[in-house]
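Operator note (shift B, R.M.): manual run for Clarin-1 isoform X2 requested after the automated queue skipped it. Running by hand, logging everything below so the morning shift can see what happened. Input copied straight from the record, untouched. If output looks odd, do not overwrite the archive copy; leave it for review.
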Amino acid sequence: MPNQQKKILFCVAGVLSFACALGVVAALGTPRWMRATFLCTTGALLVNASGPELDKFTGEVHYGLFHGEGVRQCGLGARPFRFSFFPDLLPAVPVSVHINVLLFATMLAVLTMVVAGFFMYNAVGKPFETLHGPLGLYLLSFISGSCGCLVMILFASEVKIHHLSEKIANFKEGTFAYRTQSERYTTSFWVVFMCFFVHFLNGLLIRLAGFQFPFAKSKDAETTNVAADLMY
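Run finished. Output pasted below as returned.
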């Protein structure tokens, strides 16, 4: 591939990585990772509510990695509430899992920014070391993509396995009990997914620029090895 086209591909990959890094930084501070609805089972059972009447006992919550807000309803009107994970919900949430989500999300943002810089360096400069060259780009893209994958897996396990939404809804509620009805991932979670996808795409762009995948032997090298074997 001509050198000019390689520069264009690396510039595109660098811009995509930089945009992803900014997106992840913004996603870290927003309460738009998860939206859930929950039913006040205590109130619904007391009045034997069914059908449209259940709307009076259905609340919702949306939250991120640091804070969130929602509305509780138990037949007596809406009760808005706000919360923060640190320090309000520490007794209720799986702290180790949540901290790991924060850790890997921070690593994802930092490494994605480094990847963007390395792509730009390869586009406009003359890399002379392994870490600055294609192998370094493959390695950093793989590590960054792995961090993004871990963020999604850990957050999903916190929500689904540890029932995070239900614990938030029932936190400091001594009288009423709430049960989660529906959950869906929102904007910030999908930003992390897009960042993971961009790192996968970056690997394809590096290959498209004409650089072999790591540990993949070229045909010329294989031919040379075969010829050397025949000589001996």
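Quick read of the result: The CA atoms of residues 44 and 51 lie 11 Å apart. The chain has one domain: 3-213.
Leaving this for review. - R.M.
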